[in-house]
């Protein structure tokens, strides 16, 4: 078991070293209290505390941090967090004024992260434009997983597998899509998930993945699922396809193509190589199968994306992406693809980059599933 406080202290020290290197005296990390897998929650990353209201972490270039918490009554929970030593509770309407007063006497210059998630009214009250831009400082240091983070991403991956097991066990003709989504959600919450940024659709010829609807599932439907649970702030994703009935020869053939494409992407995912190589490898297989024009939007979006503490490096995996792969990066590799003969099909796994290549953290077999 990794020591949480030591891990968090080391994260903070890396951030403060970068601040000194960049000449930043104080960094204000703002959280809106809303959480999104596509954006790294930088306050949660450093405090190991999930805000439920607008809050701010004040980080000096050296020394201890201070956490400003709203609502007032949530401050005791914050004080119990492993990464918090000094927390002050206040009303949401007083937060902007508190940040201004705290930073007025702090080491200058002051940078801020979180400007893009502030309401316009709050940003104006704070005078956010007067702060330097500190948005990229923390994500630039969080491209790879620490031992604690990897432990949590791995558990999130286990929960994603549990979610797909629930999909397999409960999906049936006549069931509504949102009912199936609820079964998946319940199974993952019972396993420890805090949230699920999941998408699920069913149909005989899906155009793309989407949120579940009230549509009742029919014989022959392809159920496509993007299952993305969150465990202690860390995400993992699993993408699979299940058919309500026996698959046709064409469906088997096209899914085998996706498996081959994903295997090629795995082979390209080695430390020291650009992440763009993954997309090129996946697209190469699909193009060779006769679908070069489908290897772009709107028929697919990306061949993977960063996962862990929100959306992080390598972000979207495309042929134009440039980040170099490093050991202990975690992200999803998915050749999810619209195919004219079958409709949209999904296959994707969360991996960790190791010296010899990627190791899948999700363990669900890489195959087409069906139930008669």
Task: Report on the architecture of this protein.
With 372 residues, the protein is α+β, with helices and mostly antiparallel strands. The protein folds into two domains: 138 residues, Creatine Amidinohydrolase, Chain A, domain 1; 225 residues, Alpha-Beta Complex (Creatine Amidinohydrolase). Helix content is 33%, strand content 21%. The protein has ten helices and 19 strands. The strands form four sheets. Strands 8, 9, 12, 13, 14, 17, 18 and 19 form an eight-stranded mixed sheet that branches. The chain has a six-stranded mixed sheet with strand order 4-3-2-1-5-6. Helix 4 packs parallel to helix 5, helix 7 crosses helix 8 and helix 9 packs antiparallel against helix 10. It is globular, with a radius of gyration of 22 Å.
Top CATH class of the largest domain: Alpha Beta
Main sheet makeup: 8 strands, mixed
Number of domains: 2
Mean pLDDT: 95
